[in-house]
Amino acid sequence: MLASAERPSAAGAFPTACFSVTTDSDPSALPRVLEVFALRALIPSQCHAVCVDEAAALEARAELSIDIQISGLEREDAEVIARRLRSIVCVRSVLTSEKDRDRIALERP
């Protein structure tokens, strides 16, 4: 049974799962991260990637910051995906959160 925070909104959609992934600045990092979603037939509702500290790329200090949002993903599935992301060799960290767009829209004045 779903707790009240996990229940679908009135529109029937689950909250949006948000993943913030930090990886080594490696050309294969972004495809490896996106592959985790592709293997589950998930298409991100939003995806943003940026190389942080490009000047340090030659010294292997640079990192890639990838933010991905998936609408309608259950919490248990998001946790499985986060564990899979953490197992990728070039991944440094994975943070997860969720947001409910319908609730946020209703709370705005």
Textual characterization of the structure:
With 109 residues, this protein is α+β, with helices and mostly antiparallel strands. It has a single domain (12-107), classed as 2-Layer Sandwich (Alpha-Beta Plaits). 27% of the residues lie in helices and 30% in strands. It is built from three helices and four strands, in the order E-H-E-E-H-E-H. It has helices at residues 29-38, 75-86, 101-107; strands at residues 16-24, 46-52, 63-70, 91-99. The chain has a four-stranded antiparallel sheet. The protein is elongated. The termini are far apart.
Order of H and E elements:
EHEEHEH
Main beta sheet strand tally, sense and closure:
4 strands, antiparallel
Mean pLDDT: 82
Strand content: 25-35%
The amount of helix comes to 25-40%
Number of helices: 3
Which overall shape is indicated by the principal axes computed on the Cα atoms? elongated
The strand count comes to: 4
Query: Termini distance?
Result: 32 Å
Question: What is the topology, as strand order, of the major beta sheet?
Answer: 2-3-1-4
CATH class: Alpha Beta
CATH homologous superfamily (4th level) name: ACT domain
The domain tally reads: 1
Low-confidence stretches: 1-11
Q: Output the CATH topology.
A: Alpha-Beta Plaits
